[in-house]
Amino acid sequence: MSTPPPPLPGEEQRLHPWSWLFALQQQVQQFLLPLVALVVFGSRSDDDLPYHHWISAAIVLALVVSAVLQYLSYRYCIGEDALSIRSGIFERTRREIPFARIHNVVVHQNLLHRLFGVAELRLESAGGDKPEAEMRVLKLAQALELERLIRQRGSDAPLHAALDPPAGDVLLRLPISELVRLGLISNRAMVVVAAAIGAAYQLFPRRVTSDFIEEHGRQVFGYASQLQLGTLSLITSSLLLLAFALLLMQLLSVGLAIVQYYGFGLSEADKRLTVERGLFTRVRSSVARRRIQAWTLREGALHRLFKRRQLRVDIASGGQQEQAGRALKELAPLAPPANCDALLQHLLPQLQWPPEQWQPVSRRGWWRLCLPALVLMPLLAALLVHETDSPWGLLPLLWLPWSAFKAYRQVTRIGYSIDAQRVAIRGGWWNRWWRVAELDKLQALRLDRSPLDRRLGTATLTLDTAGAAGSPALQLRFLDEAPARALMAQLGREMARRKLRW
After folding, report:
1. pLDDT at residue 162, as a whole number
2. CA distance 176 to 181
3. What is the phi/psi pair of residue 340, to 5°?
4. What is the tally of helices (H) and strands (E) in the chain?
5. CA-to-CA distance for 225 and 308, rounded, in angstroms?
6. Which of 225, 251, 302, 364 has its CA 20 to 30 A from that of 348?
């Protein structure tokens, strides 16, 4: 693919001539359900004049006109230090976006984009609920060139370096075998099935959905009763049916993982990290390393079974972009623990990882982690015994020993480590996690003491950064009060003498 020459400074550029079609596609998606409802329910009326068809045609015509006007009114201009965007017909808007304020650059291509050889470019900054700019659409080569210019001019590299950028170093690639493991571990099909059931209840009348489930349930049970299976055969058949359903769910999870992460590659160039992934919809997202606010390593029971781990980052970008899956969040969706540790050590070269020693917290009041189970399980058991008048209602009480054991192990694993540059926190037991944040990224500290904390002489210290909104929270629980206040004072002095780096 030949790279187009960079546009001249101060020269206004248009979007791709087919951009109005993609703007229309997005608008139709927003109005699709009302239009379908208007056509379907309007066609059932006994009126001789099909008013609903005229209304639908008028709505579609208005959407087409709006999309064309958006294309005609949209201009962008690449300056020396900022990107200027002009849009609007009746209410005209001009936006100046400094390159240094752009935190995340996303090049998005779905199947329709790839068919036309175009791409959508999104520019995101810190704290906004929406992207600073959505340029839909540009030629693919034009979008990649604009991404390169923004990356170069937003870094500390000289402007002439944009003419000959260095090749990116590939830090991680995920082959198909890793994607299969990712699907088996994540079990994404459960989320999809639950979302489909919820959507069915939202889109269709509840009575229709309930009648559908009840009718097909009666058919299944009626067919099973006609077989006249014995108890052993019935149990065996049920187990085989359950195993078949679980197998289908796992296959669906693997398929979803392959569709979402196919061709996953993490590369580094000009102190920026770039992730590219996707089978049908290709997403290319990049962020400057200095924009990363916190780092998170996670591993669950299935991760340990497959000897894998996950590395995520928190960046200062809008919440809606994160929920839509556009922001760069996963540096390593799945990788061996040694690879994740090496990647973290490479990106944070002054960090000693893993720390030689973790500072423990107080184990007093460890039972607070299982307090909900201590309250709810006896109530549930009492309710079941009252309703069934059977000792089997006491079964929920069997959860209490496991809950207490898990709570104690969680507290014993909580620890922290602070050096001259960074603070690291670990926690969890069944599902383990590690969080790392640079001291230069800390914005505020908060010391909380609940009534139980005051009773037990403990406190919780929360560390706040510009974009560390990930889970779990960046906080230290179960600290003794005196060490917690001393640690807060120490970190406060470090924050006062350091310059905040975004």
Report:
1. 38
2. 9
3. -65, -45
4. 15, 21
5. 45
6. 302
Q: What distance in Å separates the CA atoms of residue 417 and residue 424, rounded to the nearest whole number?
A: 5
**How many CA atoms lie within 13 Å of 219's alpha carbon, on the beta-carbon side?**
6
Higher pLDDT, 127 or 111: 111
Here the tokens at position 424 are: 């690291």
Point out which residues pair with 392 in neighbouring strands. none
Q: Which two tokens stand for residue 212?
A: 């559908």
Question: H or E stretch including 10?
Answer: none
Distance CA 381, CA 386 (A): 9
How far CA 215 is from CA of 40, 107, 489, in Å, comes to 25, 47, 65
Each as own residue / partner, the long-range contacts of residues 192-196 (CB below 8 Å, 24 or more positions apart, any chain) are 192/252, 192/256, 193/249
Amino acid type, 194: A
**What's this model's pTM, rounded to 2 decimal places?**
0.79
CB 498 within 8 A of CB 439: yes
Residue 435, Cβ density class (10 Å: 0-12 exposed, 13-18 middle, ≥19 buried): buried
What's the chain's average pLDDT?
Answer: 81
Rounded Cα gap, residues 244 and 235, in angstroms: 14
Peptide bond into 336 cis (omega under 30): no
Q: Dmax over Cα atoms in the chain, in whole Å?
A: 83
Torsion of CA 322, 325, 328, 331, to 10 degrees: 120
User: Residue 171: its pLDDT value, please?
Assistant: 93
| Residue 38 to residue 52: CA distance in whole angstroms | 6
Residue carrying structure tokens 């009302």: 34
Length of the chain, in residues: 502
Nearest to 2 by CA among 139, 101, 207, 188: 139
| Distance from C-alpha of 198 to C-alpha of 242, rounded to nearest angstrom | 22
Q: Omega before 28 cis (within 30°)?
A: no
Per-position b or e across 281-314, b if 16+ CB within 10 A of its CB: ebbbbbbbebbbbbbbbbbbeebeeeebbbbbbb
C-alpha to C-alpha distance for 258 and 189, rounded to whole angstroms: 12
d(CA 48, CA 56): 17
- Round to whole Å and give the CA distance between 78 and 123: 14
CA pseudo-torsion sign 447, 361, 430, 312: positive
User: Sorting pLDDT into bands at 50, 70 and 90, what band is 158?
Assistant: very low
Contact 243, 237 (CB under 8 A): no
> Residue 384 class from Cβ within 10 Å (0-12 exposed, 13-18 middle, 19+ buried)?
middle
Q: Give the end-to-end CA distance of the chain in Å, rounded to a whole number.
A: 35
